[in-house]
Structure formats: C-alpha cells, structure tokens
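Whiteboard transcription, Tuesday session. T.W. wrote the structure tokens on the left side:
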C-alpha cells in the first residue's frame, strides 16, 4: 500500500486544469513552480491528512463504541463540527480560520460525547441500531444548523463546509489539517488502552484502566481530527466508516496492528477518489464528497447486508476467532455478567 500511495501521490501532483509537467519544474519554469508549491503540493498534503485522519478517527470510534458501523459520519461528529462553524460565523463574523476551528473543536467534542453517553444507556442495542441513533442525532443537529443558517442568512457562507472539496486548498489556508499528525501519533500511543476499553467497562476496570478517562480521551482525539478536517475541507462522509471495516476484514481489530494499514488505505482511498473527481468531467472538477458518497454508499450497503446476514462474524474472513466479533461478544458477556 505504501508503494501504491507513493505512485498515486506522484501522479496527483500533475493532474489538473493547468498543465504542470516534471520537465518544466526541472527546467526552472517559475509559473509551473508557483502552481506546484501554492496549489498542487498543499492539495496533496491536505488529501493525505484527510484520508489518514478520518480513517483513524473512525477506527477509534468503532473500537470504543464496540460497533463497526460507528464513525464521525454516523456519530454526529461531522454535523456537530458544522454547527460549531456556524456559531463562529454568527457570533464572530470576522473570525479567522483558527477561530472557527476552535468553535468546531468544542462543538464536535461535545456532540460526540453526548452521542456516546446516550448509546451507553441503551440496554438492548444491536449493530444497526447504534448508527441509526447517531444518524438521527446528526440529522437533528443538521436541522438546527440549517434553520439558523436560513434565519440569519448564512446559508451561502456555510455552504463551503457542507460539501467536502479540495479545490480551495491553497498554501496559507490549509495548515490546520496538520493537527491530524500529532493526534494520530497520540492515538497510536494509547492504542492498547483503546483496545482494553473496547472490551467493556468491567474488563477495563479489572485491569486497572480508567475506563471513562480513556473513553473520553479517544473520543476527543477522534472529534478534534474530524473538526480540523471539516474546517479546511468540509464534510466528507463514509471514510471513517468504510476504511476501518475493509481493513478489519483482513487484518483484525487490534488498533496497534491495524492503525498503520488503516491510515495507508484511507489515504489511498481519498486520493483515488479525488483524482477521479478531477478527471471524470475534465476540465471541470467534481467535489470529492460526491465521489466518496457514491462509492461509500455502495460499500456501506454491502457491509450492512453482510452484517445482517452473518451477524457478529461479519467483520472477519476465514474460520478463526477474533476480530471485532470476538471483541463485541466478550464485552457484552462481561457486561451481562
């Protein structure tokens, strides 16, 4: 996957309306060098951070919630971040990108915490019910956001964050997404603790792990990663849902063992979707949210039917025990005991 990502990254730098060729860069063409440094390279870095960050955020949320269909999309995180951006636009019309990011961080963290707090209090829940509750909460938050936007005539200003796209990513206004790098590293450091917490409250407490502290730390990391991406790129659905599930089918569910694979595959997936959006109706460009939404919806439906058909065995291949199926079962047995 590393080799595939390297090849796609190199190809991505030279795909666009304006022709930038390697020969021009090597020859010292100033116009080509300016386009490369101001637009193409920042766009590639933003794409890689988005793919890695959203995938890791989804992996963390799925492990902590013990449900393979939880993600920033189905867990109200994205809709809460959009609500925070709207609040920044309403109360601080002249706010900078960093000011909006602070509002988005706070709203995303709070919305994610409330969602997890609520599902923890549902006594009987299956794999499908939890994301449906998250989608419901997300629609409620989205409805409030839309109402306030119409009420105060902010729909046009908010539209940039409702549909994810990389067309406006330029040097000087995308650097917030670099926050995903230390947050992903922090997630790797605490990966073992996330695995233990994912086994259930009783299991974690028996091992001396502070359940609530680790739970809220993981949710905060996932929410901050999502908010930093939404502020710059906008809403991109399904990445945090699809990528961890696909990787888990082949690699299992131990975060430390799958985090690198999840990050690599997420970056490849987003980069491939972005390149499709740039060439499918060339010289025009489709928003990446549209491409990811189409592919993600089809994969999500397939995963949903596969889960319904195979139950807790849906996230593993082969005949061995393990994976999230074993994790969820053990956690639920611990809670029941």
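and on the right, the sequence the group agreed on:
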């Amino acid at each position: 996957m590393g080799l595939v990502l390297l090849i796609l990254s190199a190809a991505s730098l030279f795909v666009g309306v304006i022709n930038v060729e390697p020969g021009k860069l090597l020859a010292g063409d100033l116009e080509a060098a300016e386009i490369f440094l101001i637009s193409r390279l920042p766009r590639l870095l933003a794409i890689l951070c988005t793919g890695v960050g959203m995938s890791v955020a989804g992996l963390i949320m799925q492990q902590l919630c013990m449900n393979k269909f939880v993600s920033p999309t189905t867990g109200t995180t994205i809709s809460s971040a959009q609500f925070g951006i709207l609040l920044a636009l309403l109360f601080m019309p002249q706010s900078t990108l960093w000011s909006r990011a602070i509002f988005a961080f706070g709203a995303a963290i709070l919305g994610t915490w409330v969602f997890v707090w609520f599902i923890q209090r549902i006594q009987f829940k299956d794999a499908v019910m939890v994301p449906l509750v998250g989608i419901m909460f997300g629609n409620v938050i989205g409805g409030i956001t839309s109402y306030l936007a119409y009420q105060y005539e902010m729909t046009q200003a908010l539209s940039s964050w409702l549909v994810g796209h990389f067309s406006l990513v330029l040097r000087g206004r995308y650097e917030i997404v670099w926050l995903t790098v230390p947050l992903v590293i922090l997630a790797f450091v605490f990966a073992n603790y996330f695995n233990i917490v994912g086994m259930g409250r009783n299991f974690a407490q028996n091992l001396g792990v502070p359940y609530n502290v680790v739970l809220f730390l993981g949710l905060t990391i996932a929410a901050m990663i999502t908010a930093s991406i939404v502020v710059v790129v906008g809403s991109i659905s399904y990445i945090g849902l699809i990528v961890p599930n696909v990787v888990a089918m082949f690699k299992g569910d131990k975060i430390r063992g799958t985090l690198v694979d999840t990050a690599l595959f997420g970056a490849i997936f987003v980069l491939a979707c972005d390149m499709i959006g740039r060439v499918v109706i060339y010289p025009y460009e489709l928003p990446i949210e549209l491409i990811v939404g189409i592919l993600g919806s089809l994969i999500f439906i397939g995963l949903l039917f596969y889960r319904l058909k195979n139950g807790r065995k849906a996230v593993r291949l082969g005949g061995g025990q393990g994976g999230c199926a074993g994790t969820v079962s053990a956690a639920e047995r611990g809670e029941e005991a």
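Someone added at the bottom: The longest helix spans residues 30-65.
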